[in-house]
Design brief:
By secondary structure, this protein is an alpha+beta fold. The chain has two helices and five strands. A hairpin with a 3-residue loop joins strand 1 and strand 2.
């Protein structure tokens, strides 16, 4: 079974969130990138940063995606502070990407978790 990169997967919950067929609490949106609050937050701040293109996971990423991923990474410091993460180094945040079943990935659309805020956290 192949897992292609496509513009949109009609069966993908995150593609439906991007298309606003499923509501979300939006954190950020531009032509290529979308961010929204996780529905089950682990931490006082917990949002997901995703490409609008349906990339199933990090396993499909190659050099063709380096500009897109670079833009996503470059947004994290600004979005984290805007969403209430405290400044580095006393504050900060955790960024994680689960990949595949053994990596704990449940939604098959590439996403970066950004978690932060005062501890204790619910998990992690
Ligand atoms: P992962 O296990 O890394 O694939 O994480 C998937 C994440 O998506 C989990 O943290 C879920 O809470 C989150 N999630 C699933 N459905 C929604 C939704 N409709 N809105 C916001 N977050 C969601
Ligand atoms: Zn998708």
């Amino acid at each position: 079974m192949s897992h292609p990169i496509t513009a949109h997967d009609p069966d993908c919950i995150f593609c439906k969130i991007i298309a606003k067929q499923i509501p979300s609490r939006i954190v950020y949106e531009d032509e290529e990138i979308f961010a929204f609050h996780d529905i089950h937050p682990w931490a006082p701040v917990h949002f997901l940063l995703i490409p609008k293109m349906h990339i199933p996971s990090m396993a499909q990423v190659g050099v063709e995606q380096s500009a897109l991923l670079g833009r996503m990474m470059a947004l994290v410091p600004q979005l984290a502070l805007e969403q209430g993460c405290n400044p580095y180094p006393e504050g900060g945040y955790r960024m994680t990407t689960n990949t595949g079943r053994e990596g704990g990935q449940e939604v098959q659309h590439l996403h970066f978790h950004i978690m932060g805020g005062p501890r204790p956290w619910l998990r992690g």
